[in-house]
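Tokens as discussed.
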């Protein structure tokens, strides 16, 4: 069942419930008012009958004449007077004992069967007590209630049908923007990811849904472009050493008699093979860093202690580097330094950043500082190296991209993209600030609670 039918059905059910409750109230109060009015008319006749027939009064004859002249006689109206201490006399039908007991208790008794009504009351005359009962039919009121009942039932079904029609029209009207969104989304495929949904003015749910789809399409388009660029760059980076190796092999085959040229060619082949192995290792790490991390071990890690391990590992690669760790901004609460991370991945990410700082700083001092607040832990790596040109900063995290001033340094342009992927895996971010010829500061921000 689609949403439009569900809304229509729900609308009809709610309308039926409301209309039935309203009809019930109308029926109850109309019924109560009609019966109450007729009972009061009977009770007035009970009092008049008792006055005329039980009490001696010079005005009784006048009362009787006025009653016959001005008080209409009700359909099938009958009067019954009986002694209270005797067995109840039989009226036109047998009345329940509770009716008489209520009269003897001093109350006005009422009883109804179909449209025939009874009213009775106790009167004291002389030494005797009497029960006066008046009965009559109310065909008009009963017929009006039947008509009202018929009208309410017909009105109920007509209202339900009308509410169903209105609900169907209303649901179709409200869901029309959603259908337009679905139709537009179905037109978007891999080859036309540049298409976007029309976002109407306003801040309603449909506008937010369309904007959310557009944001998702932006991310998908960026991901597709990044993938295409990655494949293109990876192909280029892999082709270069393979071309060199192929050329050197041909040269070595042609210079069989020249041992010196063969050794030079083999040495070149070895260097390019190592370069190719490094590129493949970096590509594998870059791909693995895109996993969701659910199948990888996560643990509580003291980040200040991890920095010492990073310093030692980087010193092994760059033995002449000068790395200084600044603990002046450590928080008073040591627990703020522990976060839940994948230790191997986070160590690799920060090591890449520190290693780059050492490589491009020409053995100048590299400073690592750590600080934490209630929500975020930050690690800043600052060097006094060659810096990054402003035009290159926006591309620095693209795979295989290298800044224009790094031609004299060996590298493959994979380290920072790998670090960024790992930091994002940990729901963190990287901020970079650099000035060419002055130095670079890269700050890693990680959520304190992991």
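Sequence:
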């Amino acid at each position: 069942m689609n949403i439009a039918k569900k809304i229509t059905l729900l609308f009809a059910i709610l309308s039926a419930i409301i209309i039935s409750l309203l009809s019930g109230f109308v029926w109850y109060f109309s019924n109560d008012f009609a019966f109450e009015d007729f009972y009061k008319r009977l009770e007035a006749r009970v009092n008049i009958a008792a006055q005329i027939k039980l009490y001696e009064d010079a005005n009784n004859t006048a009362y009787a004449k006025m009653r016959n002249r001005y008080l209409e006689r009700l359909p099938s109206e009958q009067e019954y007077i009986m002694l209270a201490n005797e067995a109840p006399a039989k009226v036109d039908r047998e009345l329940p004992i509770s009716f008489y007991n209520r009269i003897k208790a001093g109350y006005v008794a009422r009883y109804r069967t179909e449209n025939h009504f009874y009213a009775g009351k106790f009167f004291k005359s002389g030494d005797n007590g009497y029960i006066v009962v008046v009965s009559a039919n109310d065909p008009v009121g009963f017929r009006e209630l039947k008509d009202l009942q018929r009208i309410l039932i017909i009105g109920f079904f007509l209202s339900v049908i009308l509410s169903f029609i209105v609900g169907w029209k209303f649901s179709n009207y409200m869901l029309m923007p959603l259908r337009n969104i679905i139709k537009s989304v179905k037109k978007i495929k891999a080859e036309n990811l540049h298409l976007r949904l029309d976002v109407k003015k306003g801040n309603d749910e449909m506008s937010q849904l369309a904007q959310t789809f557009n944001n998702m399409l932006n991310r998908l388009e960026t991901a597709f472009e990044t993938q295409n660029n990655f494949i293109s760059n990876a192909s280029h980076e892999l082709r270069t050493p393979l071309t060199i190796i192929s050329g050197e092999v041909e040269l070595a085959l042609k210079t069989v008699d020249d041992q010196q040229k063969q050794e030079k060619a083999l040495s070149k082949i070895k260097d390019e093979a190592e370069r190719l192995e490094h590129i493949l290792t970096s590509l594998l790490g870059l791909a693995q860093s895109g996993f969701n991390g659910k199948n990888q071990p996560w643990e509580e890690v003291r980040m200040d202690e991890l920095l010492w391990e990073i310093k030692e590992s980087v010193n092994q690669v760059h033995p002449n580097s000068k790395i200084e760790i600044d603990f002046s901004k450590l928080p008073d609460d040591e627990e703020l330094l522990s976060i839940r991370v994948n230790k191997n991945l986070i160590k690799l990410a920060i090591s890449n950043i520190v290693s780059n700082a050492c490589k491009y700083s020409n053995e100048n001092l590299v400073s690592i500082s750590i600080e934490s607040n209630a929500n975020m832990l930050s690690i800043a790596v600052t060097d006094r190296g060659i810096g990054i040109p402003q035009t290159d900063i926006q591309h620095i995290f693209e795979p295989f991209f290298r800044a224009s001033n790094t031609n004299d340094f060996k590298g493959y342009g994979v380290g920072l993209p790998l670090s960024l992927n790992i930091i994002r895996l940990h729901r963190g971010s990287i901020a970079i600030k650099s000035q060419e010829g002055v130095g670079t500061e890269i700050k890693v921000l990680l959520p304190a609670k992991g």
